What does this fold into?
Amino acid sequence: MHLSRDAIVSTALELLTRYGLADVTMRRVATNLGVAPGALYWHVANKQSLIAAMTSEILSPVTGETTTELVSSLHGELTRWRDGAEVAIAGAAFPESSASSDLEKLFTSALKREAPGASPEDSGVAARALIHYVLGATFMEQSREQLSGASPSAAPSASNAVSGVDTLVRAAELMVAGLRTL
Amino acid sequence: MHLSRDAIVSTALELLTRYGLADVTMRRVATNLGVAPGALYWHVANKQSLIAAMTSEILSPVTGETTTELVSSLHGELTRWRDGAEVAIAGAAFPESSASSDLEKLFTSALKREAPGASPEDSGVAARALIHYVLGATFMEQSREQLSGASPSAAPSASNAVSGVDTLVRAAELMVAGLRTL
DNA sequence: ACCTGAACACCGTTCAAGT
DNA sequence: ACCTGAACACCGTTCAAGT
It folds into this structure.
């Protein structure tokens, strides 16, 4: 059935946006491709590596020169997908995908530009802290959306005043200020 | 069978340390208590809320006056349990447990003490950023341990030089410095 | 009030056998 | 090389019925 790894990944991403991560199962992906469940395992090692591949796809458009831009871009790409942060957290924990180390490089070099005096170690620490913050905060943001049954594309409710892009950007500013003074 | 919510939670935590989160299933918890699977649902709403209760138990010993102490304490309690960070991330996303807001208060007040000039909003942002960093970094730490099949109680390998408590503490110092200068 | 029995509607993964 | 059929060993959750 000219099944391919790419076809599997994009079908998984379709199921993700339509039904959420809980309904992205190997069996449903297979059914959606008109194929037996076992057929997937010729192209993909296991479900974990499929999620890692989805993560790469989700994170690949992230760009930006400044940390502020990178933080907003990352948050934007995560919220563009249903359960995007949850996928990225699960996918980043699985190496073999360079998705998270690519992200780390982007953030680290932006921080080096904005705080040239800081040591490479400190820039790396700050980069990872910011990335984990965006992932974690966006995950909690999306979890609460799901519990309250709200649609993510709706007008931003006042309830997520504590989250949102603004506080993420503010964390980036704090990190840069810290790098400059230490 | 004098089944209770507490008994369920502590059995779940036993299974966690012995077999890992993937093997903490409602059915196994029930079997371990000598009870039918459905019996659990009289004391616990669902698996999600059981994990939230486990999270409260894991995070409750976290203490510290300074952010450095809090960061090490949080990292310590998470690594004391197999898959501790994964449980905490899943549990924190589920409200109804005050575990994560308690943690937020501890971190926020420590930051206020160390950077009294900062606004309450900034202290909150910094607190959440640090908490998410510790959770995320520890999760990746523990994921890699599992993949390499190493025991967590073994001597710290050189491979996790990038993670560990030191970089987490350093992030706390950067955050405090940022709060002081902004 | 609390628990059992039994079902419902699923999972991820493997692997002989086919083409 | 790539896929099917069919199985293995499970899941979370519900709910009538019992005590």
User: Anything to note?
Assistant: The CA atoms of residues 141 and 147 of chain A lie 10 Å apart.
